[in-house]
Argininosuccinate lyase (Allorhodopirellula heiligendammensis), 458 residues
Amino acid sequence: MASPSRSGVFAAQTDQRLEAYAESITFDSRLYRQDIRGSIAHAEMLRTVGLISDTEFTQIRDELENIRGRLDRNELPLRFELEDIHMHVEQALIDATGDVGRKLHTARSRNDQVSTDVRMWIRESLDAVDALLLDLQRAFLSRCDDDFDVILPAYTHLQRAQPVLAPHYWLAYMEKFERDRARLADCRRRVNQCPLGIAAVAGTTLPIDRQQTAEALEFEGITANSLDTSSDRDFVLESSFVLSMIASHLSGWAEEWILWSTVEFDFIAIGQEFCTGSSIMPQKVNPDTLELTRGKSARVMGSLQTLMLLVKNLPLAYNRDLQEDKPPLFDSFDTTRAMLELAVPIVAGATLKRKSIAARIEKGYLDATTLMEWMIRKGMPQRTAHHLVGAIVGEAMKRGVALAELPIETLKELSSEIDESVYEVLGTENAVAAFCSEGSTAPHRVREQIAAWKHRLG
């Protein structure tokens, strides 16, 4: 059977090698629900403007719903010669209704049909990813109160820098995922414009109502220019970029917790249900889920690169190259959702190793910057204080002690401006308590942020 896309101008049959080469049904079949919903809305509009009758609309609608059921049950055979899901649905409709089914494609092209289907699919997928990000934020938030008494070392250059409360770490990831959610929402607004009715490239001479189909399909508006719409895949690339940012954040978190779960750090225990063993080393409990998250993030970012290269030099308007946008698009969403679905229970179920953390929290002179700022409050210039504290840390390193363990006599030898009150800011607990700026790890600021997030997330 020849594809319905081949008109009477063709005198030769399609080469079977081309059929296999050009088909997309093996990956775009997942768009069938969107395709059928869009077709029903299009048929209803055709009835409204008088291009089909009430009876014809009813026949088309009922049979499309029947086809949807057949596809749900995997009862509709998929054939290369029909190329894509759009042709499969249309051919099944024609097989069932004859000339009535042949009217469905009036004032429509596969160009605007495909764009409509993909936009609806992306819209739903963006919402699903957003819901998972919200779940992940709630998982981090659920830890904040229980972990409030834990002080962790914050790192720069992977070297111990300053002490922070554990919930300050959790809130940092919530901020990252909140920006991701904002990007999703912003992307969704541009996705949610209806292309249906621009037809192939120039519009149509038939009296259609694009606003009606847009409203029926819950789009916020219609695309403005038929040439642009026929070629536009910005919404595909933008959604892929947003997913790449999410993947980057997940990869960074995974890397951090992989490090934290090592004997060298010994900060956190990952639930064993998300770990694997070794085929030869019986003692191993490996955080493979996190390693896979770190690895799978590369697939999402690679898909963005594929999409950017796909469209970089296409002339207006539609080109068949655009068929190749779906495999990387689908894989990006599938991979991101899989990463998020596992991240949520991992975050909720991990356990901070409090004794191990506390035993080493004074290592690394995390209170050095707080000591410097104490001197600044005493009137010392910042650069002078910076140099002096470096000397004090050097003395502590020689003795193998923490700053708080240096006797006052030693401190006064290094600076006559130091007095006994210095010990109020030395040690990690005192250092954390000394913070006060907005956005800092100051306990009262962290509590404010936890309360604000609880209100925001409900």
Notes: The chain has three domains: 14-106, 111-359, 367-457.
